[in-house]
């Protein structure tokens, strides 16, 4: 009688330890101690869909370097605590938003193939959006009107030629706007109208020859405006700009030609 009992005691010892790499769950997870969030790392798994059964308390989800070419934010509805989502380097061509992601603060879409952005919906606490190095040719008027908490918007390295005057309408919390390395030839005078908190504006590496008068709203506090690598047609009237902003500027002076 005691022999089978002993075997029962031994067998569990002989079994391999509980696996941390569940074959149905290819993504390792660990606590991110800095952010105090559960971080799930699905980087470089050749995934063509968001894996089901991710931990419900996922706070940071890394999905960089996969094959998520078309995606709806509905895929993240089972993750109500999701704050940071990295979808860079996926060849993403289509994105749909709408379903409520109540906690999402940071969305990284850089290094994809997006030609357009939808009018972003259902992301009420989004504070950082990066869509750098995609193929955006235009922005919709009011594209960001429903992500009014946005503080940091990175559109560097796209194909933007013009912008509608309401491109950034409603972005009253925006502090950092990066439009560098696009194909911008001119900008609408009212572009910065709602951006009362803007601190840093990157316009370097475009095709700007001039800026409209009163482009920088009067009474606005800017800290940094980067303007290098544009074919400026004439020296801008800096005094007007500086006077208009009642502030300190760190201009990277354009290579002026008359
Ligand atoms: C995520 O996983 C990839 C591939 O295993 C690894 O290279 C990367 O360092 C990980 N990232 C983090 C933040 O742990
Ligand atoms: C988007 O914003 C508009 C105006 O700011 C508002 O009327 C509308 O209800 C919002 N839509 C969603 C889905 O939040
Ligand atoms: C630049 O702006 C100042 C202040 O408004 C104005 O007095 C001056 O005439 C302008 N200079 C040129 C070259 O337009």
Automatic annotation (TrEMBL):
GO terms for cellular component: plasma membrane. Transmembrane segments: none annotated. Pfam families: LRR_1, LRR_8. Keywords: Glycoprotein, Leucine-rich repeat, Repeat, Signal. Residues 1-20 form the signal peptide. The keyword ATP-binding does not apply. The keyword Glycoprotein applies. This is Platelet glycoprotein V. It comes from Bubo bubo (Eurasian eagle-owl).
């Amino acid at each position: 009688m005691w022999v089978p009992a002993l075997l029962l005691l031994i067998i569990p010892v002989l079994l391999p330890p509980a696996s941390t790499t569940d074959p149905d769950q290819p993504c390792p997870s660990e606590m991110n101690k800095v952010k105090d969030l559960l971080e799930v790392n699905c980087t470089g798994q050749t995934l063509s869909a968001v894996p089901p059964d991710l931990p419900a308390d996922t706070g940071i989800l890394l999905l960089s370097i996969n094959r998520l070419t078309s995606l709806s934010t509905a895929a993240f509805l089972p993750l109500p605590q999701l704050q940071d989502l990295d979808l860079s380097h996926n060849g993403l061509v289509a994105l749909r938003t709408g379903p409520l992601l109540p906690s999402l603060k940071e969305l990284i879409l850089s290094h994809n193939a997006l030609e357009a952005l939808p009018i972003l919906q259902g992301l009420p606490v989004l504070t950082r959006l990066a869509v750098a190095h995609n193929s955006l040719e235009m922005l919709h008027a009011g594209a960001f009107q429903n992500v009014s908490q946005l503080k940091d918007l990175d559109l560097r390295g796209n194909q933007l030629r013009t912008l509608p005057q309401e491109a950034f309408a409603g972005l009253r919390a925006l502090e950092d706007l990066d439009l560098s390395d696009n194909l911008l030839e001119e900008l609408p005078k009212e572009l910065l109208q709602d951006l009362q908190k803007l601190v840093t504006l990157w316009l370097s590496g475009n095709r700007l020859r001039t800026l409209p008068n009163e482009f920088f709203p009067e009474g606005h506090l800017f800290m940094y405006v980067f303007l290098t690598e544009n074919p400026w047609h004439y020296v801008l009237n800096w005094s007007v700009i500086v006077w208009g902003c009642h502030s300190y500027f760190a201009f990277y002076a354009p290579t002026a030609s008359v």
